[in-house]
Amino acid sequence: MKNRILTFVSILFFSLCLNSQEIGKKKFQFPKIKSDITIRKSGPYLSLQRGKYLVPEFGGEMQWKKVKLINPITNSIHVGFNYNFKYNTLGYDVGYWFKTGRLNLTYGANLIYRTNFTYDKIGIAPVLGFKFTQFHLQTGYHFMTPNFPRINTNTFFVSLRFVLVNNRDIDFD
């Protein structure tokens, strides 16, 4: 065992000494392997939003993930609609969220439009969530334009979304 360690240390020492003789010349460098891998996934989603009202949501989502060993970055955009059957309220959402790391939180915002077919409101909703495989749990608050007639919609909400991935593209740069 000692002979193996001594042989390994001597080979390492002599290789460093030989490399130090090349000070004036261009040193050998291993080629850097730069492989940017981007995964793009898209598909429809089904979601259930719960606040004061229970509202089903439907839409589409597209995600871009830059694959890295440390701190992968995921970006996503989505477009969808929801409908409150009990109070006849329709809503449209357009949003964006991003995540850095593997088990970190997602941060995003939605632009929202709500109508009861007589009056309407627009607003913005900052969201915070956690994504695990195709499930995405988000919570947020709808900041809406103030107007007198009340539209029965959630202000503070929690939603659970499931994305049915039907397109997956992998790009190597």
Give the distance, in angstroms, between the N- and C-terminal Cα atoms: 45 Å
Largest sheet: 8 strands, antiparallel, barrel
Overall residue-averaged pLDDT value: 86
Helical fraction equals 10-25%
Class from helix and strand fractions: mainly beta
Strand content: over 45%
Order of helices and strands: HEEEEEEEEEE
Q: What order do the strands of the largest sheet run in, or round the barrel if closed?
A: 1-2-3-4-5-6-7-9
Record field, number of beta strands: 10
The number of distinct helices, counting runs of at least 4 residues, comes to 1
Rg value: 26 Å
What's the overall geometry?
elongated
Compact summary:
The chain is mostly beta strands and 173 residues long. It has one helix at 2-20, and strands spanning 37-50, 54-67, 73-84, 89-100, 105-115, 120-132, 135-141, 143-144, 156-163, 167-172.
Explain how this protein is built.
The protein is mainly beta. Helix content is 11%, strand content 57%. It is built from 1 helix and 10 strands, in the order H-E-E-E-E-E-E-E-E-E-E. The chain has one helix at 2-20; strands spanning 37-50, 54-67, 73-84, 89-100, 105-115, 120-132, 135-141, 143-144, 156-163, 167-172. An 8-stranded antiparallel beta barrel has the order 1-2-3-4-5-6-7-9. It is elongated, with a radius of gyration of 26 Å. It starts with a helix and ends with a strand. The model has no long low-confidence stretch (mean pLDDT 86).
